[in-house]
Amino acid sequence: MAEAALAPPRVARVPRARIKLDWGGALGLVLTAAVVLVALFGPRLAPHGPLEQTLEARLRPPAFAGGARAHWLGTDNLGRDILSRILVGARPSLLVGLSAILLAGAFGIAVGLVSGYYRGTLDKVVMRVADVQLAFPAILLALAILAVAGPSNLNLVVVLALSWWVVFARITRGEVLALREREFIGAAVALGAGDRHIVARHVLPNIAGTMLVLASVSLTRAILAEAALSFLGMGIQPPTPTWGGMISDGRAYLAVAWWVSTMPGLALTLGVIGFNLLGDYLRDRIDPRLRS
Predict the structure, then answer these.
(1) CA 172, CA 113: separation in Å to the nearest integer?
(2) Which CATH architecture has domain 17-290?
(3) Is 76 strand, coil or helix?
């Protein structure tokens, strides 16, 4: 018995799936941090001006493919440095996506809270409006609105927010409907707590984790939507460099200068993968049903 008492405690083994999840979260955090840092300091890190044209150096290959070291990722059809344009283009792409998600989240969560908590006629009207909007593809709805309102940064943010508020509203409503049936909500009502107190102290803290995960996942879709609209010429307008616009600029040169579209496409892919991995990691850490 004495030997058993003095024996060191057994160390629990971490499941292999949990280790993979941590590695995925770490990779997502690294990629996300890299995109954010590039968006913040990209103009200072750019070796050349993003609008600086050198026609004598047009369509130069990257340095690793036999090109000059002065242009590590090559040049486009106007002789502009691709690396500099990628670094500078990260800021408008991320800023538009983040602004759209913040606006969509604020409006959608507010609508979902009111709809799910008070229910009744208001809930039915809101959900029917949401169903009608969900019947239209988001990208087509954005193209239709931008074709009428005109492409601009503000219009792009508003259009993307209008496309995603429905997702926040419906998920918030479902969470609130489930929380209304919990015992602590009934106890708060029995103690005389008002609606504002219940929503602020009991409802919002319990849905904050879900909304955080939803925002991180929706951000990737917003960035992809901005890139798609810029690719089609309805997003951020030239001369501001964006990843989607750079991919569009290189379409005509894929056969002779693959790097013009490939390099910004690779940057967009890595950014989206990073945000997706980070969103999956946050979901698995926050949702107690996935921590067993």
Answers:
(1) 6
(2) Orthogonal Bundle (1.10)
(3) coil
Residues 57/48, Cβ–Cβ less than 8 Å: no
| Residue 168 and residue 211 in contact, taking contact as beta carbons nearer than 8 Å | yes
Contact assessment for residue 210 and residue 171, using Cβ atoms and an 8 Å cutoff: yes
pLDDT tens digits, 64-115: 888 788 889 999 999 999 999 999 999 998 999 999 999 999 999 999 999 9
Predicted confidence (pLDDT) at residue 262 exceeds the cutoff of 90: yes
pLDDT digits (tens, 9 = 90+) for 161-184: 988 899 999 999 988 888 887 887
State the Cα–Cα distance between residues 209 and 206, nearest whole angstrom.
7
152, 169 in Cβ contact below 8 A?
A: no
Q: Please report the pLDDT score of residue 69 as a whole number.
A: 85
Number of helices (H), then strands (E), in the chain: 11, 0
Per-residue pLDDT, 63: 87
| Full-model pTM | 0.82
Cis peptide before 239 (omega within 30 of 0): yes
SS3 75: strand
Q: Which residues lie below 8 Å from residue 251, measured CB to CB, with a gap of 6+? A: 261
- CA pair distance 83, 73, nearest whole angstrom: 6
Q: The dihedral of CA 159, 225, 25, 175: what is its sign?
A: positive
Closest-CA residue to 272 (of 124, 95, 102, 94) = 94
Query: Could you write out the DSSP letters of every residue in 189-203?
Result: HHTT--HHHHIIIII
Domain boundaries defined on the chain: 17-290
From CA 154, how far away is CA 99, in angstroms rounded?
10
